[in-house]
């Protein structure tokens, strides 16, 4: 009566439903977890609050919890990876929570994925040093706040699609990530796919799809 | 002196530079075309105006021009397609110019691509009738204006990534495509990659990358 | 001196005034309740805070309080329903508070009303399974956040008016419900009437009017 | 290939599809009209341009054209009205095009409808003089630009739902109808259903649904 | 070193400087009060926080504090009124804090002023009952949130200027008072002067100037 | 049938109705003029287009037309002024159309009014040279675009109310007058009353009311 | 009477007044030119329209006109340069009009200035090839539209201040230069000074000030 | 792994990297400080929270902390100043935190800098009294909230560039500093360079660059 889980999603489209925990009560999240217990598919709980985690771990005691990514996953070990490699970039240290949410989502949806941190365009040598590695990826996620300029630079250097995640890092005219979002939508290099502000989950999901076998 | 064409782009990242003709003079476009004449790579001129087309056809007499997509391509015949199939959907008849820009871009960048028109969610049976076909595509482009609701529906039905292009079709609170853009960024189904309003070129480019061999 | 209750509203237009409790002090709400004690009409207190509820229950001890809908109603039992049936849909679990505010408002204003939860467009089979039931309603309220796409889909399936309530569920470019609001204003199906973000009260009131005998 | 008309709409939901002509070429509109020729249902072409009208009248020679409402309807005579009466109000003379689009839509969808012009709140006696007439309507459409204040006032006086259409009348901070739109969404009187800026078609459609037998 | 009080303001333009306390530390406010102690002019401290009040009352023990208006005034008794009468209207109970800030400012700047509460347009008889009284005022302040429709109605009824103060009362598309602000800037009746959202001080100051002898 | 002129407005509130000509057809304006012919009161037609002027001068041959202010007035000679003097300032030459609309409105509504041009804050000596003259006015209208800074400076120098009219002069982040509008709403000096962007009529009307005898 | 030229500006602050021609009539511009004829200082007319140029060249026959920059300058030859060198970068060919306005302004205000075109970040090797030259400049102007990412990259490479001019090049979510403006205000590299969208004049003026002797 | 400090920045472009502490954990900031311990360059930690300061002082015990500016600097004593003098103006007392962040940044980056407080345009004599001093500066930083009008006035009086920092001081239509930002971008005086809202760090950095020897 409070939810109709879309349990057929994995069969229908290859990737299971994730539970968006922001805006749900502790009790609602726990009841949803109970339904998922008996299911074969991976369960991801995104944007979890501390008190929801406690309740989830009572229902799914061996679930994995990543505090920085605010993600609970069950079963705790990601599946054996298939498909091509994914690379996740964080422009600055402050973009790490979003980047990690993407990283873990990609892994739990079945891809091999790595993370590179603090390669913003203010010190260009840092991203240039990564070019060979960038060219090995089948999909690249770039999380960036403030000016959101990194995806334009990366997309100009590689053949793989760049999934750009604007983050709410910044202040003033960053407008909670709006500035970075607009930058990315207007990337002067083609090959930039944009998702919602702070949507590490969505970026990781897209990366898993693009790098699928 | 007026341009430094990025001629190494095809080598560096697999897809050639396209010329954004809006905001350029007829003379500038013609001079750029002259430089491209001797090049081996595909040349795409996007958002061309009628008077630019005339000038382009003087420099590249056998170039292909699609008036609805506002696109000039040279050489006129797309390369033999490789990779997987791409499907382009137009939610309504008015979304055709953007959808065709995506369709042709995908083809000139080397993929096989088809178009399906007028399958908006107001008459849901139309998109439901396409489900088997949707599931054969490696990437799906969805152009939609007004409420921009079609990508959410499609992404819930397929495993392939959906590239959502908001169009400026509509009036009033459509705010020239902003409403559709926000809808797509907030798609309740994961797997939706968003590009700029009316950016059929960018959508087609991403589709070609995702469906690459 | 702090309020001039519009006590003639029920006589003048058939539905009593509701007290908007957000932005009022506990003391003000209690004083208003005191005036209403002697009145024959239904009293609804919307958007109540916990400390206001305590004060209200001192003045109106048998009032009904619904914590999820943040609504206090007196007398506690809704009137015997007249007119046609109303259906309230919540696109996701997180839309429940707004959906319940609509549901209860409709009932206290004299209509029979039911609730269906978690039928968002990401799993289309859920709403398709409800089509026969949707077609029995005289008015349908749809509460949806994020992309706000559900009302367009529902309005394309039924003859009754759809009252769309955007909710503030979501984050980033959801802009506290603005994205869903714009989607609904631009619904590609006609027959969608929009109310303010999170305005379950207003939606329920309209449903009661439309389904009136 | 350019359109898949939703011809089942009248059967499925009681009201036929309308053709949104803005953003369509003359040729596209004409081809759509050709398909509709053999159909039993009412055909409405909204937001038509002069050159589209010429083409339409070649295909449907006896179609009715209202220049102010920018509407073409066929067959030219509305059906015999059923259901309750509808009243359309225009706050000022400049709101007439939108008000007439609502008026004619309502009539072609089968209701009896009347129009009252220039009853804005700056001269309150004008709307007060209409109160008895307002109370006879089953649904009231109010078209207003600038401050958009008229729906709040009307909704406070009647039991029937008020369908508020913000118009783009005004300048400066009217922001092409945004000011009026926000006013209406925040109406301090309940019972106000809002549609898109300048959407007389949508308002008239909702009025026809609400006043249906 | 932290402030250069504009002590000549009363001489130069007839009304003394007021101290805007939001964004100042307790210590800064206290030091400013100390400078004002020896001055002949009225001192107004606006938007005070509780802890600032405590500090102010140590420096100016007999100052008057109005908690609802968040205003501290010294000397505590307003001057003997001159000029014409001012009327302050609050559309709803929730607009009282802003309305009282205007009321008290007007009085401390030397005018006679009265307050009328809860006369919003949803129950039009309430403002109509005040018309004779409205016509006696030299300036009328109207504080209103949500749709902000009251100033348009009042300005259509009287010869005196109406000073409209949008309040942040409301939610959702009220956008913290933006909706009411736009309504008032687009008032369909002339004679409406607008000040910033929640700026009761500015409204009261203007009323005092307009009603000056 | 196209208008219900509020002919009682002069009696009811001291100032006659003005006809807003933008958004009206030539025929509608002419018909309204015909009704006004027999009336004793001043008639102002604002925001007139050239073709409307031609039609108006046929109905009211001796009407006065000011092309810069886009204003037609009848009878052509303003009434003998009463009340106090009004001063209208244009920050730059480009603000002249709006400033003149205010100037003429004030004169036709019965006040004595003068104009001072090009006294923007970039060359501060120009406004400082006007201080004695500024202090003789009962109301000051300030029209300014771009940064809209002049009203803040003027209000800090005088006792009379300043009516600030933002103009759409500027480009880019001037956002058609929005920047100037926000500046004026946030004037750091009290005593600034704001009207809509480019609303010279409204500013002149307020000035006439404030400077009334 | 239509203008009070700020002729003392060159003396007072070292740089003469420029005439903003947008929004002025041909006649007004000509009259202003007449006043400037006898003056010793440089006169710049910005944002001129073709018909204004004709009138200007009648008053100042040997004035220099640059059609791309929409600038008229008199005397036609810039002064002998003093101070340090300035470099102006245009990210793309479409940014040339704004870049040239900056270039010429800097030269007419007395600095040596050069232009480099089409060095956007999509082909990073182009800007990297300029690093030695970038490091010789005392001030660098960067004109960029779409994502506006170039200033962040340049500022990370040099010690001199970067003056960033967002241009209105782009479409859709570029929002006429707003996207680029926000990018630049949020540059992740310090040392970026921002001016208004398309404000080549202001950028050139700042460059001249910064590179002054 | 959490950061790649851009330690070459001082060598490459003359000014060291600053650590943006907002959005970083206490642990992350401490680890970054540890890396900086052995470095020769100045380290600035901006927007520090109290708990970050405690951790920083454990790693760098003699670092200087300014609570108002929310800045930690190490080594604690700024370098001996070179280049020209910088002047920092705060329009009001509430702008002090931003002004001090600029002041200290400028000093730690090697310039001599002074602060002048509370010289807003509402009391114009205060800034006029500073004109001789203003004219001695090589660069002037102006921090202002609300209307943000001070930079326009200052830039009209001096030859040096004005760096304008909008602050989030104000309420309502100040929109957290947006109003002041737009004012400054549209300054009617040239010579105004704008940085992000509340970005005292960026303003101070630019001032140091402009006043460099
Ligand atoms: N962090 C997230 N961001 C965006 N979408 C999400 C997120 N987590 C889950 N979702 C999607 O949101 C949809 C609605 O969630 P729910 O409210 O749980 O029904 C689910 O079907 C998910 O696919
Ligand atoms: N939750 C709500 N949302 C929108 N309007 C409401 C709500 N609750 C009450 N109202 C209306 O708001 C008006 C103003 O309320 P009040 O401030 O109590 O005078 C009332 O007349 C109600 O009709
Ligand atoms: N003037 C109008 N405003 C809003 N919606 C409309 C209008 N005219 C037609 N429509 C709807 O827009 C939908 C999409 O139109 P089309 O592009 O013709 O497929 C149609 O199914 C109509 O229901
Ligand atoms: N308060 C500040 N405002 C704007 N930019 C800053 C601030 N503090 C540091 N920065 C810059 O922000 C960049 C990114 O910071 P980080 O996230 O620490 O890598 C740094 O390279 C700094 O140059
Ligand atoms: Mg970093
Ligand atoms: Mg269609
Ligand atoms: Mg769900
Ligand atoms: Mg009228
Ligand atoms: Mg009330
Ligand atoms: Mg001037
Ligand atoms: Mg280029
Ligand atoms: Mg002060």
UniProtKB/TrEMBL annotation, chains A, B, C, D, E, F, G, H:
GO terms for biological process: 'de novo' IMP biosynthetic process. Residues 84-213 form the PurE domain. Gene3D superfamilies: 3.40.50.1970. GO terms for molecular function: hydrolase activity. InterPro entries: P2CMN_synthase_LarB, PurE_dom. Pfam families: AIRC. It comes from the Bacteria. PANTHER family: PHOSPHORIBOSYLAMINOIMIDAZOLE CARBOXYLASE-RELATED, SLL1489 PROTEIN. This is PurE domain-containing protein. It comes from Microlunatus phosphovorus (strain ATCC 700054 / DSM 10555 / JCM 9379 / NBRC 101784 / NCIMB 13414 / VKM Ac-1990 / NM-1).
């Amino acid at each position: 009566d409070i939810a109709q889980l879309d349990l057929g999603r994995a069969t229908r489209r290859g990737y299971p439903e994730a539970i968006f925990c922001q805006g749900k009560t502790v009790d609602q999240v726990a009841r949803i977890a109970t339904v998922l217990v008996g299911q074969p598919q991976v369960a991801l709980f995104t944007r979890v609050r501390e008190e929801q985690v406690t309740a989830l771990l009572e229902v799914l005691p061996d679930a994995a919890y990543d505090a920085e990514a605010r993600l609970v996953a069950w079963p705790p070990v990601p599946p054996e990876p298939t498909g091509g490699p994914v690379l996740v970039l964080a422009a600055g240290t402050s973009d790490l929570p979003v980047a990690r949410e993407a990283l873990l989502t990609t892994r739990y949806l079945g891809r091999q994925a790595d993370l590179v941190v603090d390669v913003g365009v203010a010190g260009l040598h840092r991203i240039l040093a990564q070019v060979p590695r960038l060219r090995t990826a089948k999909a690249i996620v770039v999380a960036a706040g403030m000016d959101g300029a990194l995806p334009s630079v990366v997309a100009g250097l590689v053949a793989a699609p760049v999934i750009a995640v604007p983050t709410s890092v910044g202040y003033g005219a960053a407008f909670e990530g709006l500035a970075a979002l607009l930058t990315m939508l207007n990337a002067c290099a083609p090959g930039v796919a944009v998702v919602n502000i702070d949507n590490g989950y969505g970026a990781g999901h897209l990366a898993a799809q693009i790098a699928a076998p």
